[in-house]
Amino acid sequence: GLVLLQPVFVGDTLRTTTEVAGLKQNTARPGKPASGLVALAVRVENQRGEVVLDFWRCPMLPLRDQDVATGHADSFDFIEAELDPAALEAAVPAAWRLDSYRARVGSPPAPVVPSSYEIEGRDTVTSAPELARATLNLAAVHTDAGAGTFGRRLVYGGHTISLAGAHVTRAFPDLVTIIGWRSCEHTGPVFEGDVLRTTVVVEGLRSLATGARLVDLRALVHRMDEDVLVLDWHLVGVLP
Q1: Residues of the chain with pLDDT under 70
Q2: How many helices (H) and strands (E) does the chain have?
Q3: Which of 81, 75, 78, 80 is nearest to 24 (CA)?
Q4: Cα(152)–Cα(192) distance, rounded to whole angstroms?
Q5: How far apart are CA 170 and CA 179, in angstroms?
Q6: Is 189 exposed, middle or buried (0-12, 13-18, 19+ CB in 10 A)?
Q7: Residue 161: its pLDDT value, please?
Q8: Which of 144, 145, 124, 142 is nearest to 133 (CA)?
Q9: Are the C-beta atoms of residues 240 and 228 closer than 8 Å to each other?
Q10: Res 108: pLDDT
Q11: Domains, the chain, ranges and CATH?
């Protein structure tokens, strides 16, 4: 998971440091290319030295030699399984004027109860290679259909997350921001032209002394052609 520890403003300068903290070769599977997992500790600071993000990422990477036994079998148990509730609360700036936000939204905040929302408006995935290039994503599978195992360009995972985030705002139009997430599992491939639908589940709600509310949500994204689950995202939003 991750927490957006500081707001980022236009004009800020961000610096990222990435440390390789662990390596683990995946079990070989017939017909599948050899691969492994890398545990990355990622830290982002702004120009004042304030930490904006401090999180773990575990990408799966192909092995150059398909027959090699690397011997890498690190345990990733050092990665925290849960977010610190105090860190989540501290990440919501006390200076935010939520009363002004409520006035601009134009209606009192609706009560949030444990519930599930089927988002009626579905989205078609477009401009996938352009987004991969714009975000400086270097993985060839996003721009070259011959680089992966599907024979088609694979959509960048952040693209799917962005569409899910847009669907969340349809269920909660007064959402102030997404402050963090507990987990984000890409459970199936997404390709350009796919139509995605999202179910948003409310899993918890906590009121803060500042007047803000933290809402725990789960976004389940399905690819419509085969009704395949492609994203299981546990996120934390801020409501007025």
Answers
A1: 107-111
A2: 4, 11
A3: 75
A4: 9
A5: 17
A6: middle
A7: 96
A8: 142
A9: no
A10: 64
A11: 1-81 (3.10.129.10), 99-104+116-240 (3.10.129.10)
H helix or E strand, kind and range, residue 130: helix 128-134
- The two tokens of residue 72 are 């890498």
Q: Which of 118, 213, 214, 220 is nearest to 171 (CA)?
A: 118
Alpha-carbon distance of 212 to 234, in angstroms, equals 19
Residue 59 pLDDT: 86
Which H helix or E strand runs over 161?
helix 157-171
Which pLDDT does position 18 carry in this prediction? 95
71 Ramachandran zone, left/alpha/beta (phi>0; psi -120 to 50): left
Contact status, residue 185 vs residue 231, Cβ threshold 8 Å: yes
**Is 141:154 a contact under the CB 8 Å cutoff?**
yes
3-state SS, residue 169: helix
| 223 bridge partner residues | 196, 228
Residue (of 18, 17, 14, 6) closest to 46 by Cα position: 14
